[in-house]
């Protein structure tokens, strides 16, 4: 007699429920904001989380220019990239990157907390970071979320 009453349910593209979430970065610390946004993008806050499926939400982060960094990170934290040519290593401090585009500072932090594979690249496309409060996704009516509610 088969009396198994519990079944493991795996989410897939058809059964996933994706929502639009609005996160305000004003006064937030960069790392804490990025880790919680990564949880939203990944879908780890949902009961039907499946590790190999994009079951996270679409996230819009506003007020990226009002982010905080603690300690000496503004001057000592460096972002290193390579051009691909010999001796082509370039670096920027957090202040220099912030002056160029504050939204890139948030994007780089969140991207570093996502998986380093095709799924991570797909999840990163669900993130929109803007300076100021105006964003292009007002038609989707994103639900404002407090970051302290996310574990």
UniProtKB/TrEMBL annotation:
Indicate the secretion signal residues: none
Keyword tags? Ribonucleoprotein, Ribosomal protein
Top-level lineage group: Bacteria
A Pfam cross-reference name: Ribosomal_L13
> Among the entry's GO cellular component annotations, what is one?
ribosome
What is said about its interaction partners and assembly? Part of the 50S ribosomal subunit.
| Family from the record | Belongs to the universal ribosomal protein uL13 family.
Q: Which NCBIfam families match?
A: rplM_bact
Role of this protein: This protein is one of the early assembly proteins of the 50S ribosomal subunit, although it is not seen to bind rRNA by itself. It is important during the early stages of 50S assembly.
Output this protein's name: Large ribosomal subunit protein uL13
The organism encoding this protein is Winogradskyella marina
């Amino acid at each position: 007699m088969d009396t198994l009453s519990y079944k493991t349910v795996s989410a897939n593209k058809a059964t996933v429920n994706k929502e639009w979430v609005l996160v305000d970065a004003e006064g937030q610390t960069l790392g804490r904001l990025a880790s919680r946004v990564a949880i939203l993008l990944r879908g780890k806050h949902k009961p039907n989380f499946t590790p190999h499926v994009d079951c996270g939400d679409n996230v819009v982060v506003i007020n990226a220019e009002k982010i905080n960094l603690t300690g000496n990170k503004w001057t000592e934290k460096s972002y290193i990239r390579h051009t691909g040519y010999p001796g082509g290593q370039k670096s920027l401090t957090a202040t220099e990157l912030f002056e160029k585009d504050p939204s890139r500072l948030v994007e780089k932090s969140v991207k570093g907390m996502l998986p380093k594979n095709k799924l991570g690249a797909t999840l990163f496309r669900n993130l929109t970071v803007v300076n100021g409060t105006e964003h292009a996704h007002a038609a989707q009516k994103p639900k404002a979320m407090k970051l302290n509610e996310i574990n």
